[in-house]
Write a structure and sequence with these properties.
The chain has 2 helices and 8 strands; from the N terminus they run ααββββββββ. The chain has 247 residues and is of the alpha+beta class. Among the domains are: 31 residues; 126 residues, Immunoglobulin-like (Sandwich). The strands form 2 sheets. Strands 4-1-7-8 form a 4-stranded mixed β-sheet. The protein has a 4-stranded antiparallel β-sheet with strand order 3-2-5-6, with no helix packed on it.
């Protein structure tokens, strides 16, 4: 009985050895016991590198786009305010000058009268005329239904001005009207001229601007249109103008 039991136990002890040998032969290793695992440390999520975003304030205190815009607007506002102040001062000087000239003594003021006169023949039709005194426009007229060309003479300007030298600039546009010289029918003749005159204190300076045909019958028609100035000076006999009543 003991011998049988020892033999049987010997067989049983051989089983694990045989199984282990078979596992090694097949390239397998015994299953490893699961090791105690530590919880993985939470890694911060990777964030994309921030590029030079528009409007972001960079190092060194650089202005954002909004701040730069506000600065520019403020600069423009300051320039506008400065310009308004300059215009206001200029207007004040002009008003003071006007009061001195228009409301002053006639012996120290001057007056100018500018007259337009048309001496052109029927071969030339006046289409438009423009006058400027010392660079400022004082009269502009375009012919409609012959109302401009039919006027032989009319007053363009009449007012008190500062004594001294002044300059009148004239532009006239004539159109060839045909007649016996049909070859230039419809042609445009643009004349521009200027004249300096001296306004004297206590006197009226009259400048008559005349559009006329220069040369004789032998003069080429396209060279005939011209402008001349007839200037005269007389004593100012008008009374001192009164200031208009405030409304």
């Amino acid at each position: 009985m003991d011998r049988k039991a020892d033999k049987h136990m010997g067989r049983l002890s051989l089983v694990p050895v045989v199984v282990l040998a078979a596992s090694v032969a097949l390239g397998q290793t015994p299953a490893a016991q699961p090791a105690a695992t530590q919880p993985a440390a939470t890694q911060p999520a990777a964030t994309p590198a921030a590029g030079p975003a528009t409007g972001a304030q960079g190092p060194g205190g650089a202005q954002t786009a909004d701040e730069a815009f506000q600065t520019r607007v403020k600069t423009l506002e300051e320039k506008v305010v400065d310009l308004k102040e300059k215009i206001h001062r200029t207007k004040a000087r002009l008003v003071l000058l006007q009061e001195r000239v228009l409301g002053g003594d006639l012996s120290s003021g001057a007056r100018a009268v500018i007259i337009h006169k048309n001496e052109m023949g029927p071969a030339f039709v006046l289409e438009s005329v423009a006058y400027a005194l010392d660079g400022a426009s004082i009269f502009t007229k375009v012919d409609t239904k012959g109302d401009l060309d039919k006027k032989e003479e009319f007053e363009v300007f009449s007012a008190r001005i500062v004594p001294g030298n002044h300059n009148v600039i004239v532009r006239m546009v004539y159109r060839g009207s045909g007649g016996p010289f049909t070859y230039f029918d419809g042609y445009k003749f643009k004349l521009q001229s200027n004249q300096t005159f001296t306004a004297e204190g206590g006197k009226v300076t009259t400048v008559k601007v005349v559009g006329y045909e220069k040369g004789g019958i032998t003069q080429d028609m396209k060279d005939k249109p011209a402008i001349r100035y007839d200037i005269s000076t007389t004593k100012d006999t008008l009374t001192k103008p009164t200031a208009p009543e405030a409304k």
